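Exercise: predict the fold of this chain.
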Amino acid sequence: MKLLLASTLAALLAAASSAATAQTAGGDAPKLQCAIGYVTGVGGSTQSVREYLATPDRDKYRYVADNPFQCKISDDGRASGCTGVTNLSREEVSVYDDIDNAMMAVVARVELDHGTKYPVIIAVPRTAVKCEE
């Protein structure tokens, strides 16, 4: 009986291990295991970042110029209804959540109101985020 229980347990562990390996190898991007990171690249509203990523390389600069990042700012300083994109250069961010395999949401301080920076949840390409070392 003990031998049957031990072999069953070993088989379950092996199956779970191979399933986890297959999931990682199956193209799913690994989840970042950090709370603070740095972003260098473009960030903004989810739809705008998707459009930016789909834009041919020769037109990316023009896309950023034609779609500046804008939000509505409430009286209490909360940003909402954001559109467009902005360039970030080694901006410190709080890693918030995965959006999909290519993008993630982060909280970044973004200039919105003539030099005033506000914390905003923005979408960034996953490859643009580097964990704090």
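Check your answer against the key: The radius of gyration is 21 Å.
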